Amino acid sequence: MAAQHGTAAGRGNPLDRKDALLGVMLIAPTVLIFCAVIVYPLVSALYLSLFRIYTPTLQGNFVGFANYAELAGSPEFWRSLLNTAVWTVLTLTLQIVFGIAAALMLNQAMLFRSLARSLILFPYFVSTVVAVLVWRWLFNDLYGILNHAAMWAGILDMPLDWLGSMPNSMISIVLVGAWKYFPFVVIAVLARLQTIPEPLYEAARIDGAGAWSRFTDVTLPQLREVLVVVVLLRAIWDFKEFDLIYLLTGGGPVIATQTLPLMVYKEAFGLNEMGRASAVAVVMMLVMLVFMLLYLRVNRAQDQR
Amino acid sequence: MSNPDYQVRFDKVRKAFGTAVAVRDLDLTIEGGEFVSLLGPSGCGKTTTLRMLAGLEFPTDGAISIGGRVVNEVAPGARDIAMVFQSYALYPHMTVAENIAYPLKKRGVGKAERATRVQKVAETLQLGALLSRKPRQLSGGQQQRVALGRALVRDPRVFLLDEPLSNLDAKLRSHMRAELIELHRRIRRTFVYVTHDQLEAMTMSDRIAVMHDGALQQFGTPAEVYNQPANLFVAGFIGSPAMTLLHGEARDGAFHHPAVTMPFGAPVSAGKLVLGIRPEDVTLGQGPFEACIRLVEPTGHEQIVALDLAGGASLIARAVPDMVLRAGETLRWSARPQRLHVFDATTGQRLAVTMTEAAAA
Amino acid sequence: MKRSILGGIAFNLLAWTVVFIVAFPLVWMVITSVKPQFELFRIPPTFWPEQITFEHYTRLLFETPFLTYMRNSLVLSSATTVLVVGVATLGAHSLVRFRYRGREVLAQLVLFTYLLPSVVLLLPLYLMMVWLGVANSLFSLVIAYTSFALPYALWLLRSFMQGIPEDLESAALVDGATRMEAFFDVILPQALPGIISTCLFTFILSWNEYLYALVLVNTDAARPLTTGVMSMLVSAFNIEWSLLMAASVMMSIPLIIIFAFLQKFLTRGFGAGGVKG
């Protein structure tokens, strides 16, 4: 009797197969949409980068790796890559530092804490367009309140050109980027902070640890896992940021704050070189691939824990 | 007599997850109306076996039958079984009444009949007052009864229970144990009960299936499993405090161990053996053997004594409360030969060997 | 933590100063939007408006295409959300509760696409829309938006669904439900808070999108708020700050509403309440 049912068991079991089939059907719409709007364009981007294409007419011809060769020899490309790295590292650092600080602060009992938390989180949810408009208004040389406040406080004699000259423009976008995105760090860190058991701090205090040691010896180790994920995610997202920098400085002055995403846009729609723009995009993605794969690995390791 | 409609059979059932084998070659027949426990430590395959019976997992090989019908290809809902989960798995967004009615609804039972049957079950389990509440408003014991009610309402052939009592506190647990036994006695359906707690298995079951590492170690009544353990694992797992196991050898017609030498009643071939002695079969104070008291634990109604033997082995014994025992003392002890257990040291299997009184050393 | 009263006051002062600094730009935005035109350009600028006026708002709503843009954004974000969350709910259920070959690979792929930069997909998508003949329409934006909204929603919903105990579905199956019946009777009601959160987060994501709107649409009829507001009001010499601030406030209103709704979900577990940059 057992032999009869050897085939009916296990993966040969029709119930199991029906089940798996249903699972596949449920994910089919997702997979189809994925292929259409993600996989196909991704492959196309690689393909496009091998052509020289005139954007308005979309006519072009095959040039092989010529686009990439041009980029390798283009000072503008290397400058954009450098800008992207500088922007990412600086704004990421500020986001992490401010994020942890704000999370620590919000973790304490304070008056109207939930209101404070909402206000702190708000910059993240506001549209980049709104954030940029507001900050450009603040930075305005004639009417911007920042200049006026600084002059009134005696820090400045003359209004500062926040966005039109270096190093101000880079500093400004880094600051606005930090303001806009640090709440993401706050959310993640605060959630973790709230799960750290109080007895850990009490034990440290009994052992004579001061506030700073308690932070470095108790808090930080507990935050390590969350911070790794947050740093990776924010690094990836800051690296590919377009809206904020484009709307604040347009990449200027000249290309002083032009990052790779902006260069893609400029090549495609400013210089009408769609093929070369695609090449820039592909290179950008290759650089990011390292971080993306790293994140996938970290995520899988943490999932298994 | 047992009802063949409710019989459960496992024929050479095997379950592998990739390369890891969870259940190997299980041959088990549970008679209709029996209360059988699947007992073993975590990871022994008992829950996997239950889930295969339920249809939530599919065997890699072998056949599972309920009431004489092979159910390998039958969906869980069509097997005429009911299951009570360790977490109760009550539907949180439905009321108690809706929870209990759900299986009937899935079978297309009409609204009026559903209401009557739910009412009946609720009365049986004293849930009448709770019918319109949501599960989160109930205590652990009440939730458990609702889970039972949901199972009962379908009048299934077989009840599957997956450690249903482990989330309850001790007092509630013994109360529910009694209720379950009573329920089984009343409805006389087959109960398959998974647990790691040997006390539960011993007190509730008609028969116990002891499992370890995916394999069935022994299937017998509580008395059989206690008094005639089939191998070393069962011997060591059943019984608390655990049986003392002494590793020695058969030589010159007797069992030889640094601390214990006992002759065999009938000739035994030479080889390595393990001698098992239950704590209650040890008599302290007189006898041919010697031991040194290491620890005495008074429990009120008795004393549990741990003793050191020559050769480094440990002996556990039970003593009456008024016996004077002090750590560090040496004393003599004996064990009744008829109550001893002998196992083959390599295979672990029980050997049918008789022992006789040992001469004084 | 024990704190002296003085320490407590000092901390609160410090904390609220920080909050004020962070919130200041947005507060300034609201204040500016209700300042009368002449006060707007006073040097030195005043903090509190001497008068409150809604003239900028009325001008915005009645003399500019702002309402068209807003309608476009509402339609666009709603359509994207409905499509994406519908597909993603089924997909997430499949990824979490079914076993089939390639499932793990798919899950990793979803995560990977979640991290993809939009600039890479941008140009091919632009070509695709032209080729399909839907360039310059809201429809093209919905298609393009799914490229980032779908991985995002799938990622969120998968976490939510992983939090639903497996036993619930098992119990339903034993009770006689088919897989799909178990999904609708038991899983969906449990996943509802997660689904609502995902809808709201996806809506915000679509509402705030700029780059795709910039490239794929350049007629006012189909422009959403993000590109619409920027194009309408920012030109080389004549920046209408008053209208801009009013527009900024108006653009943020749905976000404030949704945000108030989502308060609960935000810090409850970073894994489940994920947010995208």
Please, could you describe this protein's structure?
The complex is a heterotrimer of chains A (305), B (361) and C (277). Chain A has 305 residues and is an all-alpha fold. Chain A has helices at residues 14-48, 66-72, 75-107, 113-125, 128-139, 145-152, 168-193, 198-206, 211-239, 243-248, 260-270, 274-304, and strands at 51-54, 59-62. In chain A, strands 1-2 form a two-stranded antiparallel ribbon. Chain B is built from eight helices and 19 strands. In chain B, helix 2 crosses helix 3 and helix 2 (96-106) packs parallel to helix 4 (140-152). Chain B is elongated, with a radius of gyration of 25 Å. In chain B, 42% of the residues are buried. Chain C has two domains: 2-53, no CATH class; 60-267, MetI-like fold. Chain C has helices spanning 5-33, 37-40, 55-63, 66-97, 103-114, 118-132, 138-162, 166-174, 179-208, 211-216, 225-233, 241-266. Classes of the chains: A mainly alpha (305), B alpha+beta (361), C mainly alpha (277). Chains in contact: A-B, A-C, B-C. Chains A and C meet through helix 1, helix 4, helix 5, helix 6 and helix 7 of A and helix 1, helix 4, helix 5, helix 6 and helix 7 of C.
Short synopsis of the structure:
Chain A is mainly α and 305 residues long.
What number of structural domains do the residues of chain C give? 2
Quaternary status: heterotrimer
By DSSP (H or I, 4+ residues per run), the number of helices of chain C equals 12
What's the helix-strand series of chain C?
HHHHHHHHHHHH
Computed over alpha carbons, the radius of gyration of chain A is 26 Å
Classify the helix fraction of chain C into a percent range: over 70%
Largest interface: A-C, 97 and 93 residues
Q: What is the molecular shape of chain C?
A: globular
Order of H and E elements of chain A: HEEHHHHHHHHHHH
Stretches with pLDDT under 50, minimum 5 residues of chain A: 1-10
Total of domains of chain A: 1
In the CATH hierarchy, the architecture of chain A is: Orthogonal Bundle
CATH class identity of chain A = Mainly Alpha
CATH superfamily of chain A: MetI-like
* CATH-assigned homologous superfamily of the largest domain in chain C: MetI-like
Helix content of chain A: over 70%
User: What is the CATH architecture annotation of the largest domain in chain C?
Assistant: Orthogonal Bundle
Beta-strand share of residues of chain A:
under 5%
Main sheet: strands, sense, barrel of chain C: none
